[in-house]
């Protein structure tokens, strides 16, 4: 009997623990954070708020339909048995059928109550709208934080796994040393407990990851599976600098509607006086028939008034006072919301400052711990004694330092997310916000916990250099230049002097564009074609490379792509040295919401042109196409085409920003040859262009970059543009 009960218990237990169908098991691979954010509007909480808003808006329209004049109709039938006249004792019996219909118009308190009902319905709709927007704001913020946590926990477990990988070998060596009397048992157990502690932390990390994934599922309404890698969390390009004047709470749903909502409360207050005094005006017709008897008809107009006895004798209008109190309540709650949000804004600024300080401290501490691992690893390989214990302690210290640094980075990212709530209009461009610290990202390499020694290099964040004029043109780095006006080079009277000046100014390559009139002339006139051939011969004799520059963004679209191909075929007989395509996808209307699609169209355009021409192809791109999630899509496809050069149009005069950002692009795209495009256009601001700073300032900065960037895939500089350069101050 006991055996039978035990068997039943085991069977039930097996059924309970048997894995059943799971939403997570059926989930899709987790996409990037940018893609997840677009799905928040389909999350169940947001959908519930939107459906609630739709209900309130329908009810508001229903109240509006029920306001104002109302039709009425009625039928009465009565039977009478009464004296034929006042003095007659004779009685008569008859029936009477009466029909009446008309329109009743609300007046006084009745009409005001209807208007108040509409205003209250508008308030409910507005509250629903505020709730829907607030839920969306909260879910986007929380989704970003959850994704950051998920990304961070995966990175932390890589470090833990690297630490745990050599557990068996280390514990065996420590056991041998204990048996040889070289290590106390208590010390051996202490080393073993470090592994157990990391195992415990690893379980906690997986639990935290599961919680993050669960929230992402709730926020998007979809099931996801998470692999061993997720893409870096990219955010709208906030770096925390210069936020002071941008940050605000006015755009948040809890504040943006305050004035409009208070106006509705004030209108309700204005209509609330003497609501008890109700009335209506009726206009109608009547018709009736007596049985026996004839039919008759009539019309009437009437006024009805109604007021409770209590309000007649009361000196206080309680309804008006209630509406007044409700208005003051709303004002107090709005003030509280504003104070609370202002406090959250201030707190987020301090949190970001603290988090960035923690990251800087963590970098320094982790560098020291990594150096200790390197040194102890070298000693362990060469010196007898307790070097194994010292190496193991340094490994554990490094692990804790690295995990603390990752926690600090996660805190900084979450603080940036929190601050992002207070940016009225977030930039469309996205980036990994901690790229400032990518110069030291090697510190978090799990291989530090392996067996091989490492070398710590000093890699300080680049500092901006002072822009000081340099008169010595010989020190200028070589550079290319965009020439959008070809006429001075085509004209035989100015061609030689123009080429000589290009060389004198330090340009050894020209990207030459032609306007539509010049293209038509080249197609129709042998004289124009002869001028172009003469230009190409003259540039070749002077050692100036001449590339054909074509730059209409619409050419990447399928319906216009053939126009570009035909133009390339037309220029094929002319001996250009290369073909440069300036087909900026972001110039196409609506590009911000379809960058992946347009990047794919650009790749297909390049594939087509690659089959049309034998010239080496180069192109210009915005830096975002070689960064973050967009790089993951665009970069490998572009690398397969093996372009001669990719010019990154990073228009900025901030040396630190350019050095940091362009340096990261070079490192992330090692299979591409990349040049840096800088602007001297006078139409741009001094933050973007050297137009007002002058030519010498630009060359000074280019010289600094020339020494700064890794030559393995850095090709040089391109200046935008020659006409602006000539007009700029020296």
Automatic annotation (TrEMBL):
Name of the protein in question: Outer membrane efflux protein
Native organism taxonomy: Bacteria, Thermotogati, Synergistota, Synergistia, Synergistales
Top-level taxon of origin: Bacteria
Gene3D superfamilies: Outer membrane efflux proteins (OEP) (1.20.1600.10)
């Amino acid at each position: 009997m006991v055996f039978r009960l035990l068997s039943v218990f085991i069977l039930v237990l097996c059924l309970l623990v048997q894995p059943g169908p799971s939403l997570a098991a059926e989930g899709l691979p987790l996409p990037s954070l940018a893609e997840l954010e677009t799905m928040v509007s389909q999350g169940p909480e947001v959908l519930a708020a939107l459906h609630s808003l739709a209900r309130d808006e329908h009810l508001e329209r229903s109240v509006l339909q029920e306001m104002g004049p109302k039709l009425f109709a009625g039928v009465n039938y009565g039977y009478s048995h009464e004296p034929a006249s006042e003095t007659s004792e004779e009685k008569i019996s008859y029936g009477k059928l009466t029909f009446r219909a008309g329109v009743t118009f609300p007046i006084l308190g009745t009409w005001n109550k209807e208007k108040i009902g509409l205003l209250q319905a508008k308030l409910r709709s507005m509250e629903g709208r505020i709730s829907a927007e607030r839920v969306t704001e909260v879910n986007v913020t929380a989704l970003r934080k959850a994704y950051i946590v998920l990304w961070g926990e995966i990175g932390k477990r890589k470090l833990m796994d690297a630490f745990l990988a050599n557990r068996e070998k280390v514990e065996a060596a420590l056991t041998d040393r204990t048996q040889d009397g070289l290590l106390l048992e208590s010390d051996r157990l202490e080393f073993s407990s470090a592994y157990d502690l990391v195992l415990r932390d690893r379980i906690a990390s997986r639990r935290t990851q599961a919680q993050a994934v669960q929230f992402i599922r709730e926020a998007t309404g979809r099931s996801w599976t998470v692999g061993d890698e997720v893409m870096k969390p990219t955010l709208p390009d906030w770096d925390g600098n210069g936020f002071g004047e941008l940050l605000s709470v006015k755009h948040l749903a809890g504040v943006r509607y305050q004035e409009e909502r208070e106006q509705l409360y004030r209108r309700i207050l204005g209509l609330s006086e003497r609501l008890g005094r109700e009335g209506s005006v009726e206009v109608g017709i009547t018709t009736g028939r007596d049985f026996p008897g004839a039919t008759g008809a009539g019309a009437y107009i009437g006024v009805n008034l109604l007021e409770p006895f209590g309000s007649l004798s009361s000196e206080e209008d309680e309804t008006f006072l209630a509406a007044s109190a409700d208005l003051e309540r709303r004002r107090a709650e709005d003030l509280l919301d504003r104070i609370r949000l202002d406090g959250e804004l201030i707190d987020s600024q301090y949190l970001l400052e603290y988090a960035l300080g923690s990251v800087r401290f963590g970098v320094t501490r982790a560098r020291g711990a990594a150096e200790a691992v390197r040194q102890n690893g070298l000693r362990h390989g060469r010196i007898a004694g307790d070097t194994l214990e010292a190496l193991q302690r340094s490994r554990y210290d490094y692990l804790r330092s690295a995990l603390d640094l990752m926690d600090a980075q996660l805190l900084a990212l979450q603080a940036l997310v929190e601050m992002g709530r207070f940016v009225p209009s977030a930039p469309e461009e996205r980036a990994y916000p901690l790229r400032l610290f990518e110069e030291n990202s090697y510190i978090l390499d799990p291989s530090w916990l392996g067996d091989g020694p490492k070398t710590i290099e000093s890699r300080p964040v680049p500092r901006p250099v002072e822009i000081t004029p340099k008169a010595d043109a010989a020190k200028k780095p070589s550079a290319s230049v965009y020439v959008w006006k070809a006429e001075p080079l085509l004209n035989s009277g100015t061609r030689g002097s123009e080429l000589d000046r290009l060389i004198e100014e330090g340009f050894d390559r020209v990207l030459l564009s032609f306007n539509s009139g010049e293209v038509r002339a080249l197609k129709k006139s042998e004289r124009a074609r002869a001028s172009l051939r003469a230009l190409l011969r003259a540039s070749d004799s002077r050692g100036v490379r001449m590339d054909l520059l074509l730059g209409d963004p619409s050419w990447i679209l399928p319906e216009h792509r053939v126009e570009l191909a035909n133009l390339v075929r037309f220029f094929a007989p002319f001996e250009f040295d290369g073909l440069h395509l300036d087909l900026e996808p972001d110039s196409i209307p609506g590009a911000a919401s379809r960058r992946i699609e347009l990047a794919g169209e650009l790749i297909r355009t390049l594939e087509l042109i690659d089959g049309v021409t034998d010239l080496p192809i180069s192109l210009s791109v915005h830096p975002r196409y070689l960064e973050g999630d967009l790089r993951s899509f665009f970069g490998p496809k572009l690398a397969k085409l093996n372009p001669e050069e990719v010019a990154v149009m990073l228009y900025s005069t901030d040396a630190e920003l350019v050095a940091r950002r362009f340096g990261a692009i070079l490192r992330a795209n090692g299979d591409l040859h990349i040049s840096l495009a800088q602007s001297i256009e006078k139409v741009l601001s001094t933050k973007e262009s050297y137009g007002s700073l002058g030519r010498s300032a630009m060359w000074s900065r280019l010289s600094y970059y020339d020494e700064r960037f890794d030559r393995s895939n850095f090709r040089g500089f391109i200046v935008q543009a020659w006409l602006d350069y000539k007009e700029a101050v020296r």
